[in-house]
Amino acid sequence: MSDPMTQVIIYMTGTFVLGLLLGWLIWRFGSAKQQELMNAEIKFWRDNLEQSRQEREGELNQIEALRREKRN
Hints:
Layout: H1 4-71
C-alpha cells in the first residue's frame, strides 16, 4: 500500500466504480419517472380515443336516422 502507483490505481478504480454506481442510480430513477409519465400519457390518449369513438358512434346513428327519415 505504500507504493504510490498502487494507491493511484486503487483510488482511480474506486472513483470509476462509484461513478458507474452513481450513473446507474440516476439512470434507474430517471427511467422510472419517464415510465410514469409515459403511462399517464397513454392513459390520456386511450381515454380520448374512447370518447372520440362514442362521439363518432352517436354521429353515425344520427346520420342513419336522417337517411331513414329521408327515405320515408
